[in-house]
Amino acid sequence: MATSLARSPRIKQSVVLLLTSLALSTANFTAYATEPAERPISQSMPAEAREQSENVSVAESKTDAPSDNANKADDSAAAISAAPADLWERIRNGFALAEMDSDEVRNGEDFYVNHPEYVKRIIERSKRYLFHIVEEVERRRMPAEIALLPIIESAFNPKAYSRSHASGIWQFIPSTGKNYGLKQNWWHDDRRDIVAATRAALDYLQNLYGMFGDWELALASYNWGEGAVGRSLMKNRDNGLPTDFRNISLPPETQSYVPRLIAIKNIISNPAIFGIELESVPNQPYFEEVAATRHMDVKLAAKLADISVDEFNALNPAHNRPVINVNGSRILLLPVDKVDTFTQNLKNHDKPLVSWQAYQAKKGETAEKISARYGISVQRLKEINDIYGHAGIIPGQTLLVPFNGRADGADISIMNNKPAASRIFERDLVYTVKKGDALFGIAQRYGVTVAQIKGWNNGTNRLLIGQKLLLKHTPMPFTSSEKRALPAKKSM
After folding, report:
1. What is this structure's pTM?
2. Does 153 qualify as catalytic in the annotation?
3. Cross-referenced InterPro entries, in alphabetical order (predicted)?
4. Class for domain 89-274, per CATH?
5. Alpha carbons 228 and 367: distance in angstroms, whole number
6. What is the number of other CB atoms lying within 10 angstroms of the CB of residue 115?
7. DSSP 399-467
8. Spans of all domains in the chain
9. What is the mean pLDDT for each group of 10 consecutive residues in the chain (492 residues)?
């Protein structure tokens, strides 16, 4: 019976097709099994897998002529394997967070819909960084929504700096930055370094997910701190209440944090229904890493790469000074199409790479005297050296000054270990009261307290339109009750 069936042309053709299908399945399984464990979860097939798939198809065509159905299957597989040309499509393919229907989500959607110019600026900034972030998120098998988190944190502004002293596109406060390997000194702040901060943020988020086993709680902890979220969970658990994001007690900012991310996800998923025109972002690298082993002026680095200083600073926002102190080696980010230009121009550059030097102030020297000697304005000298307000020059203080041929300066390497200067400095601001203003609203806007405003303005209680209020940039210490009301953002 089996022999007679085997002689049947229709059965023979079916057997051949079955064997072909099994061979293709085996080849694909083998190709997947031999890939590294960190292979990103993505609907787009890596180039290596595409090549293996193409090789298998060619080998099968030599064995047996495929049917029309087989050709259609091959076409479908090729369409699936092709990486999307638009990065937004790639991001959509990786969305994994649960849907959320709430007023907070709708409020988030309305905010972005009602501010199209703001959305446009965010997208324009994101083009430099988003591909790298998506690559890292996929490599770690994290939900693609995580790549959109900088929209909430900083609007992809690499120089963003909050009143809680959080910095960079991922908004790390100093302590958490240090805990995750982000060095902060006088020369540079790795919280603003695109590659380093992205690595640290994803490490942090993965650790938070490991603690809570839930992405909503992990994201809430990123905003409020894992200790605070953990205590809120314990309180619900002790009272027999649900222990999830929607049911635990959270401050208003954190309550709206995850819904805002879901709102952004919804808009990215289908911008047309929200009336938003989402400019395409190419699904390809924007920058490459280049090792710098010598000190170099920021302006010169930009010139060697044939890009603007603004573009260079946007890719390398971690540098605090007009000169890059490598202190061994630093990684520079340059547009992909400018790497060869930079390398070749640097090779052919036969002039000094640095136009700045270190100078140790002597007794009796003032900012005015030093600025005149080195051909720099007093304002610029103070700005570069973090001298604020009425602070004077201290004898022995090491300053960064222009190199103008004088022999009394030194190489900037002697300042390698200079500690980070506090960005909290005293600066007066005069605010003019407008219609509808209240002390509480003004205090919130400028990151101070009502008590501080009263203290700076002779105990004023009643506001009048046109009234001038003195505000200080440096907040005075909060009271215990005020501290408890504030979220300890990213505290360990």
Report:
1. 0.71
2. yes
3. LysM, LysM_dom_sf, Lysozyme-like_dom_sf, Transglyc_AS, Transglycosylase_SLT_dom_1
4. mainly alpha
5. 46
6. 12
7. EEEE--S-TT-B-GGGGTTPBPPPS----EEEEE--TT--HHHHHHHHT--HHHHHHHTTT--S--TT-
8. 2-83, 89-274, 287-348, 356-402, 428-472
9. 40 40 39 34 33 34 42 48 89 96 95 94 97 98 98 95 91 95 95 98 98 97 95 96 94 94 97 94 97 96 98 97 91 98 97 94 92 92 87 88 80 86 51 82 73 78 81 44 38 42
Three-state DSSP class for 289?
strand
Same fold, 356-402 and 428-472: yes
Tokens (6 digits) for 96: 């994994």
Residue of 153, 216, 226, 365 marked active site: 153
- Number of C-alpha atoms within 13 angstroms, CB side, residue 360? 6
Task: Dig out the tokens for 362 from the structure.
Answer: 């002597």
Would you state the structure tokens that stand for residue 267, as one six-digit string?
């808009």
**Could you tell me whether strands 296-297 and 323-324 are parallel, antiparallel, or unpaired per DSSP bridges?**
antiparallel
The top-level CATH class assigned to 356-402 is alpha beta
SS3 388: coil
| Six token digits for residue 37 | 């464990």
Kindly provide the b/e burial profile for residues 385-397, where b requires at least 16 CB atoms within 10 angstroms of the residue's own CB.
bbbbeeeebeeee
Domain 428-472 = CATH 3.65.10.10: no
Query: Encoding tokens for residue 124?
Result: 């324009």
Task: Tell me the C-alpha distance between 180 and 242, whole Å.
Answer: 32
